[in-house]
Write a structure and sequence with these properties.
It is built from 12 helices and 19 strands. The protein is α/β, with parallel strands linked by helices and about 450 residues long. The strands form 4 sheets. The protein has an 8-stranded mixed beta sheet with strand order 2-1-3-4-12-11-10-8. The chain has a 6-stranded mixed beta sheet with strand order 14-15-16-17-18-19, with helices on both faces. The chain has a 3-stranded antiparallel beta sheet with strand order 7-9-13. The chain has 2 domains: about 260 residues, 3-Layer(aba) Sandwich (Rossmann fold), CATH 3.40.50; about 160 residues, Trna Endonuclease, Chain: A, domain 1.
């Protein structure tokens, strides 16, 4: 392929717009095939955004509905087949390393593992962002990287690296990009591009234009040096006798890998959700309020915000109505002021809902949040405030205690009984006080 030919190469892009005469963005939900092009550049983060952008359920919950998931997987599978064929034809593929590798589904249906369909995503791509990208590798990638060394940033670290690492986090051996080569086929996993500064007016100097120019030169160099005499596409359709069992084995192993990746994605999602619950003893403000609301919902309560202040919540269920004040304290515990705020909120609610069941005041405080749990020696609810709490028939409970109750309910399915305890308690909730949280939460090992 001559240099003139390389300048005329047509490049398809998926999930990313790279303005250049040689490129054309192909929409994921369109019927346009990638096989019409001589090269492909894709961005999985952009693909996910494009495919879920018009789905109301994803915008509100971060999950797609089952029917939406079926459509997404259909088009992902179509694109996977086309990319596989592109690679068999010896055509180059560049995939920006992306942080998204799962689309969550709002049903019992398995979540969608993007890495099973598109390069540039998967369990090996761990979300991490920054700009300290350095290149270490041979030609022709060296020239490619040198032309773009001021453009790169990263959205993922590759652990383990799925190919030969080329781009690294400065000062470390952590891979940010790589080339995957096999039987004359190659896919470049590239760091992402920084946005073009507004001060750059010339189209030829924009980051996307510069990237495509460098990519076209890389395509030309790789073709001349290694794949100019690539075999015809129909060669692979002939099967040698020793190939058959190996092909069958490969198919079985791919299927097993896909199933393992789906299980891993589900496990990672569950671990992430559980790790988020630890904010019950590490956060304050809106984050703490949201976590408390989720913990109360896990006890079978319907939770809604108060009419004015974000710290206020209302929870109903199991025959109880709770008016709730949520507070987080960095280096202190609670105080009578918190209890007085709760009493004012309870009185206002009772006045506005005089036909409803008498509400129970619930004071939920994450005290000393900046200290690890096993270093919190002072009580969150000091003795000086207890008389007021008891006179107002309030229940005072820490974020840690509430988390332990939610974990207990998950194990024993005793949600109604726990809610009954909260409703019956006047003063400090008696269970999981002090270091009793260790019955549900394991402390880190002591350093030797």
């Amino acid at each position: 392929m001559s240099k003139k030919d390389s300048q005329q190469i047509r490049v398809a892009t998926l999930g990313v717009t790279l303005i250049h005469p040689a490129t054309n963005r192909v929409e994921m939900f369109s019927r346009n095939t990638l096989l019409d092009y001589e090269a492909l550049i894709l961005d999985v983060d952009g693909v996910v955004k494009e495919m879920t952008g018009n789905m109301p359920s994803y915008a509100s919950t971060g999950r797609v509905e089952r029917q939406e998931a079926d459509a997404i997987e259909y088009y992902l599978e179509e694109r996977r087949k086309q990319i596989t064929e592109i690679q068999k034809l010896g055509r180059p593929v560049i995939a920006f390393c992306s942080s998204t590798h799962t689309i969550l589904v709002n049903s019992a249906r398995p979540d969608i593992n993007i890495g099973s369909y598109l390069p540039g995503a998967g369990p090996a791509f761990h979300s991490s962002a920054g700009e300290n990208v350095v290149f270490q590798g041979p030609e022709p990638y060296k020239t490619f990287a040198q032309k773009l060394d001021d453009l790169f940033c990263y959205a993922a670290i590759l652990e383990p690296c799925p190919g030969k690492p080329l781009f690294f986090l400065k000062g470390t051996k952590k891979a940010l990009g790589a080339v995957v080569e096999q039987s004359g086929k190659w896919t470049l996993l590239s760091p992402k591009l920084k946005p073009t500064p507004r001060t750059i007016i010339s189209q030829n100097l924009t980051h996307p234009h510069r990237f495509v120019e460098a990519a076209l030169e890389l395509f030309r160099t790789r073709t001349v040096s290694g794949t100019e005499f690539a075999p015809p596409a129909w060669q692979s359709s002939y099967i040698l006798q020793p190939e058959r069992p190996l092909l069958d084995r490969r198919n079985a192993e791919r299927q097993a890998l896909q199933q393992a990746q789906q299980k891993l994605s589900a496990t990672e999602a569950n671990l992430k959700a559980l790790d988020e619950l630890k904010r019950a003893f590490t956060s304050n403000g809106d984050v703490l309020v949201d976590i408390v609301a989720n913990l109360l919902r896990s006890l079978g309560l319907t939770v809604e915000p108060g009419p004015e202040v974000k710290d206020d919540l209302i929870a109903r269920g199991h025959g109880h109505v709770f008016v709730i004040e949520v507070k987080g304290r960095d280096k202190t515990g609670s105080g009578e002021k918190d209890a007085r705020q709760l009493d004012s909120w309870v009185s206002r609610y009772a006045h506005e809902h005089d036909q409803e069941k008498e509400p129970k005041g619930l004071l939920i405080v994450n005290g000393y949040k900046d200290l690890p749990l096993d270093q919190r020696m002072e009580p969150t609810f000091p003795h000086a405030m207890l008389d007021y709490v008891q006179r107002k028939q309030q229940c005072a409970i820490t974020g840690t205690q509430l988390l332990c109750l939610a974990l207990e309910a998950q194990q024993q399915r005793n949600e109604a009984a726990i809610v009954g305890e909260l409703g019956a308690t006047t003063g400090i909730f008696p269970r999981y006080q002090g270091n009793d949280w260790s019955k549900q939460i394991a402390a880190p090992p002591k350093e030797k």
